[in-house]
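Need the bound structure for adenosine monophosphate, inputs here:
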Amino acid sequence: MADTMPVDENCLFCKIVAGLIPCARVYEDEKVLAFLDINPINRGHTLVLPKAHFPSLLELPDSEGESLLRGLRLVAGAVQKQTRCGGFNCIQNNFASAGQVIFHSHWHIIPRFNSDGLPDWPGGAYSDSKEMEELARSINAHILKA
Ligand code: AMP
Ligand code: ZN
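Answer from helper R.:
Posting the output first, comments after.
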């Protein structure tokens, strides 16, 4: 772990990373930690996070990408083998409006089963393809400005 790793002393997940609060650890390497969610949506629901404190996806530097992706893939594969789930959701909540409660970025690996009773996301619609294309262009303009 780098000495300069960002830490927030008031953050629950930073305390878990530091070993100050226990967790049911699933995986750990130099940069990534994974542990069971204390309130699982389905049994085996696991959280995967960078050890360093980044509040949301928007602060996460490119340098975290490779280790995070590797951790996600290893954990998801192992959860699938152990729980024999048909599939899994890999979800990350950003900001309170999206349900983020712990502001240390983390990914949920949620085992899913054909008849687990969890609701599907509702699908909306655009009024026409022009509206859709304009919206895509407007979002892209923010990327070009960044
Ligand atoms: P989010 O809503 O994306 O911020 O998710 C936070 C998740 O952290 C929730 O699913 C909680 O159940 C989980 N959680 C909170 N405290 C703990 C803890 N001490 N150990 C494991 N999971 C936790
Ligand atoms: Zn933190």
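Comments: Helices lie at 12-17, 65-83, 129-145. DSSP finds three helices and five strands in the chain.
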